[in-house]
Design goal:
DHOR; globular; metal-binding; alpha+beta; 14% strand; single chain; two-stranded antiparallel sheet; 14 strands; disordered N terminus; heme; signal
């Protein structure tokens, strides 16, 4: 990392990281990297370094000799952001030990109930276990449960006789350490997203996204993109959601705060209280991290949350496309992508507020994808059957790393992902299935190049 900074700031970053400078910067080498040369000031370069440290270096449980990162848990899934977002860990259902990947979390919700908080309807959690199962606990605090996956299978037959087997994971929980779930609670899976390009997505003007919305399908094309308006408690305002599988996060900072709280048990300005259930006594009584030198009592106070968000926002911009595909093959696949109607939701490009043209291949709106993908979890205005159009950029890297697709990783490749589309996307799926084998391969090759 070719950054020239003052020795004092470098020393601070090393101390915050709990190790050497080299160790603090090595964790993300195989996954993502930032571009310090593009930063305009030494202050921004310093913030990038500190944010990267808090993203990659493990947090520890309190009490600890350090006050910088001693807020882990009491209940948690991972001890670093990188645990879910490194290339070798993210995008998979199972890890190398054939256990459920940390990048795949189990969400809890009661879809038939409604509650109001911060002037908006919220997803109702389980009364004991909250909104996400924690698979780990600090010393003296029992973890909540051990998730498992049952794989279901069905076969799809193309008009030309080609058969494709589709599988999907059905989550279950064993060893529930705090009693049974409520009978009204449902389980949902969420796979951690790729982070490259998030800073560019945040720079898309709100009106540019809203221009594509047609919630009542006034043009009668069968596509009714809908905005998800989410409440930001710090701004005390509703903002356009654009991150997350259901567009339920309005900003990188909001998304970072949510992951910090639910995945690592870190209190922060968005989640100032520990996420312990009222009957989880050991969790409620667990030691809290000592106040920082500034007197801050939150595990992740605003300046650290801003630093992590700044780092995520400056991960390398648009994901790199493959350069080894023949231009004529790409042209053919792109034409078919347009002809079958994929571009109606997977909008190719936007201009950022800085005038840069980016190619995320998403409209960042909610669409009904049918009952087979519905997972009994509403989020703000997003109903269980509605999902944000997944950005297609980064597909080349995902294919290279063997990532899986869709919100729960059920699709092993783009072909399977297409076959899961229904409702608003049913016509496009049927048009794809009518293509001959060569044409289908050309369209898939185009997707894999993005």
């Amino acid at each position: 990392m070719a950054v020239q900074i003052k020795g004092l700031v470098l020393l601070m970053a090393c101390v915050l990281a709990g190790g050497s400078h080299a160790g603090a910067l090595s964790g993300m080498a195989t996954a993502v990297s930032a571009t310090p040369a593009e930063l305009s000031s030494e202050e921004e370069q310093d913030r990038l370094l500190i944010g990267r440290s808090f993203f990659t270096v493990p947090w520890v449980a309190a009490p600890s000799a350090t006050t910088a990162r001693d807020g882990l848990g009491p209940l948690f899934n991972s001890n670093t952001c990188a645990s879910c977002h490194q290339a070798k860990m993210a995008g998979h259902l199972l890890n190398d030990r054939h256990e459920q990947s940390r990048a795949l979390v189990v969400k809890l919700s009661q879809p038939q109930k409604h509650a109001l908080r911060d002037k908006t309807t919220i997803t109702v959690p389980d009364p004991v276990y909250g909104s996400q199962i924690a698979i780990n606990g600090v010393s003296g605090v029992l973890y909540e449960a051990t998730p498992g996956l049952d794989m279901q299978v069905k076969t799809v037959v193309f008009p030309d006789g080609t058969e494709v087997g589709l599988s999907w994971p059905v989550p279950y929980l064993k060893r529930l350490n705090y009693g049974p779930l409520s009978p009204d609670t449902r389980l949902s899976l969420r796979l951690a997203p790729m982070l490259n390009g998030t800073g560019l997505i945040e720079q898309i003007p709100e009106q540019a996204i809203l221009a594509g919305a047609d919630p009542n399908d006034r043009n009668r094309d069968g596509i009714s993109g809908k905005a998800n308006w989410v409440y930001d408690p710090l701004l005390q305002a509703f903002k356009l959601g654009r991150f997350g599988h259901k567009a339920s996060q309005a900003s990188v900072m909001m998304q970072t705060a949510d992951a910090a709280a639910h995945d690592m048990g870190l209190t922060n300005p968005y989640f100032p209280e520990e996420l312990c259930g009222s009957t989880q006594t050991a969790c409620l009584q667990a030691p809290a991290g000592r106040p920082s030198a500034r007197g801050e009592t939150l595990d992740l106070p605003m300046h650290r949350l801003e630093a992590i968000s700044f780092y995520v926002n400056h991960l390398n911009g648009s994901p790199k496309r493959r350069s080894d595909v023949l231009p004529q093959a790409l042209a053919a696949g792109k034409a078919l992508f347009q002809a079958v109607g994929c571009v109606q939701c997977h909008r190719p490009s936007f201009k950022t507020q800085k005038g840069q043209t980016i190619y995320p291949y998403s409209d960042f709106l909610l669409h009904d994808l049918g009952p087979a993908l519905a997972d009994a979890r509403p989020e703000f205005d997003a109903q269980p059957n509605e999902w944000r159009t997944a950005p297609l950029w980064g597909s080349a890297e995902k294919v290279r790393q063997g990532w899986r697709f869709l919100h729960d990783g059920r699709a092993a490749n783009h072909l399977e992902a297409i076959l899961w589309h229904d409702a608003e996307a049913a016509a496009s799926r049927q048009a794809f299935m009518q293509l001959n084998v060569t044409e289908r391969e050309q369209l898939i090759q185009f997707l894999e190049s993005l």
